[in-house]
Specification:
alpha+beta; three-stranded antiparallel beta sheet; 7 strands; about 40% strand; Secreted protein; signal
Amino acid sequence: MEIRYRVAAAGVSLSLACAGAVGVAAPASASVSGDTAKSSFSCGAWRYERGSNGHGASITCHGSSFAGYVVCHQPSGYLYLRFGNRARSGGTSTAWCDLNAEVSEAGAFPVI
């Protein structure tokens, strides 16, 4: 079980690092194209969701298309990452964990 935890933690770290790289690349590409209006990506607080098939989180963002994510924690200690639907600026993305798993972290990243 220790190996599964380490693999899940490494996968979460890699996914979040890639999401950060995408977020950093977006403003640079906008300035190269000569666009004078800088877009800013911002999100509100995520909302905890409870459904008949598990727990999740929803988030609303502005400035770019985006996708939400949740880091899920099972009682056995297993961590995994789930992505929500892609949404346009001003929309809401919801990501769900499996039954009996809890949301330990949630957020969003811009999708180019």
